[in-house]
TrEMBL record:
Belongs to the Wnt family. CDD domains: Wnt_Wnt16. GO terms for biological process: animal organ development; canonical Wnt signaling pathway; cell fate commitment; neuron differentiation. GO terms for molecular function: cytokine activity; frizzled binding. It comes from the Eukaryota. Keywords: Developmental protein, Disulfide bond, Extracellular matrix, Lipoprotein, Secreted, Signal, Wnt signaling pathway. This is Protein Wnt. Residues 1-17 form the signal peptide. PROSITE patterns: WNT1 (PS00246). It is found in: Secreted, Extracellular space, Extracellular matrix. One of its GO terms (cellular component) is extracellular space.
Amino acid sequence: MLLRRPTIYLWLGLTSAGVPEKLGCANPPLSPKQRDLCRKKPFLLPSIQDGARLAISECQSQFRHERWNCSTSDQPSVFGHELTSGTKETAFIYAVMAAGLVHAVTRSCSQGNMTECGCDTRLQGLGSPAEGWHWGGCSDHIQYGTWFSRKFMDSSSKNMTSSRGGHTPDTMNQHNSEAGRQAIDKTMSTDCRCHGVSGSCAVKTCWRTMAPFERVGAYLKDRYEHSIQVLDRSRKKVRKKEREHRRVPVDKYKLIHFNKSPNYCLEDRRLGVAGTRGRRCNRSSHGSDGCNLLCCGRGYNTHVVRHVERCECKFVWCCYVRCRRCESMNDMHTCK
Ligand SMILES: *[C@@H]1O[C@H](CO)[C@@H](O)[C@H](O)[C@H]1NC(C)=O
Ligand SMILES: *[C@@H]1O[C@H](CO)[C@@H](O)[C@H](O)[C@H]1NC(C)=O
Ligand SMILES: *[C@@H]1O[C@H](CO)[C@@H](O)[C@H](O)[C@H]1NC(C)=O
Ligand SMILES: *[C@@H]1O[C@H](CO)[C@@H](O)[C@H](O)[C@H]1NC(C)=O
């Protein structure tokens, strides 16, 4: 079954492409609740846009070697069918978008751009003087961003744990968004800086910091690979064995999906699948970017491409660098 197309992504798509200030709160297809939130907190619009951009570019980077490469379209729905297919890809999109929003809002809080949030002051003054360190500087305070991401992206505040077991499209999306937010928390780390005469590190100041978003992306990619298939409660016919098997509770860090993914090999316009024809592959790789896997066994074409670069650069006194132009011919392989 198809999941209901969530309007928020229509809007995130628009904001990632355009200028949010111009869009304002009234024009985009926001739900009444989101419109209300948007009106109350217009200063968060740039962060919403940053978060969407961050998430989309990270998705494309994590999946650049996969058959499904997270390509987006200019269509307002951005992700097309993958947003509603109930697959692992849907799960990843929701998680990374929710995480991107937390990350961008928190960044803005830490940089002092916001009156409603700032650095995490709860740790200030604490530490272990005996061991020569204390908390200081600006610890990222993810609570505000997390709160906002929930408020903005979750369609309902209903309890997601259903007594009957299984999920609805809404609870699946909400679960995966939450897993994305948890990923920010899970990947946080502590950074320290030394003080003391000539770098003796007699005293250290430490603070909590969010991981760069690439690390969050890699973490979520791993979750994607271990995504758990759960029961779609709206499906009528489910074998008993399957029903029992899929009823296992899933912790909040894991991603969940309903449907098996298509193989993404061949173009299917109806499903919005681009197929891998024409994709560049690596003949010597046994991974997902290898020609065998990426081209789905269809074979590949080899083209020779000329590559020109600056090389053998020498520093010439004084003061410039002189290089030669080097040409090389490389094989490039693309899927048939
Ligand atoms: C994904 O692959 C398609 C071809 O299947 C290509 O047209 C598109 O540019 C790729 N997108 C990204 C983001 O690499
Ligand atoms: C914070 O504000 C400054 C100055 O307006 C801006 O350059 C910077 O990009 C902002 N940071 C974030 C994370 O929004
Ligand atoms: C949701 O339901 C579970 C089990 O029924 C309960 O333990 C939990 O506290 C509830 N959470 C909320 C936010 O109501
Ligand atoms: C192709 O794959 C091999 C083996 O994984 C790797 O060493 C090489 O750098 C890759 N080449 C390109 C162009 O990515």
